[in-house]
């Protein structure tokens, strides 16, 4: 495994950990917003379940993209990973501006994004390009 693999998988693991550990915070925040908007219990449950499925889908897509680059050596997928990692800071800024977000989750979020950017740095290095071409 390369530095890219360790860093990107580490970032994914941190994001999953944060989502699982912070699920109660997410759920309560969503419930409070739903109650403030006059949503029914069914609407709240639907929104909560959709967020859980969205987390799972994003993780699955990121893991699939990692596998395409690292295991199957599909070079153009690197650009898709860059796009996904570029979107992460936008979401992080929104989360960190919310005063109800605990400091612990802010630190995990920032660490995961730094690790993902470092992984992108390593996947565009000359030795990684040679590995993707099958030369190494």
Could you provide a short overview of the structure?
This protein is 82% helix and 0% strand. The chain is mainly alpha-helical.
Care to describe what's here?
This protein has helices at residues 3-21, 23-36, 41-70, 77-97, 103-123, 126-132. The chain is mostly helical. The chain is elongated, with a radius of gyration of 17 Å. The mean pLDDT is 86.
Strand content: under 5%
Residue windows where pLDDT falls under 50 for at least 5 positions: none
The separation of the N and C termini measures 12 Å
Shape: elongated
Q: What is the helix tally?
A: 6
The tally of beta strands, per DSSP, is: 0
Gyration radius (Cα, Å) is: 17 Å
- In terms of quaternary structure, what is this? single chain
Structural class: mainly alpha
Mean pLDDT: 86
The ordered string of helix (H) and strand (E) elements is: HHHHHH
The largest sheet is: none
Descriptive keywords:
82% helix; 6 helices; mainly alpha; elongated; 136 residues
List the helices and strands and how they pair.
Layout: H1 3-21, H2 23-36, H3 41-70, H4 77-97, H5 103-123, H6 126-132
């Amino acid at each position: 495994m390369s530095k890219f693999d360790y860093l990107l998988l580490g970032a994914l693991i941190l994001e999953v950990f944060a989502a699982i550990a912070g699920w109660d915070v997410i759920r309560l925040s969503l419930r409070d917003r739903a109650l403030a908007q006059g949503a029914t219990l069914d609407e709240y449950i639907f929104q909560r379940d959709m967020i859980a499925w969205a987390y799972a889908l994003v993780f699955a897509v990121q893991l699939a993209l990692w596998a395409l680059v690292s295991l199957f050596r599909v070079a153009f997928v690197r650009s898709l990973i860059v796009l996904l990692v570029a979107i992460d800071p936008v979401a992080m800024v929104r989360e960190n501006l919310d005063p109800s977000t605990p400091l612990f989750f802010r630190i995990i979020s920032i660490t995961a994004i730094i690790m993902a950017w470092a992984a992108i740095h390593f996947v565009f290095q000359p030795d990684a390009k040679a590995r993707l071409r099958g030369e190494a």
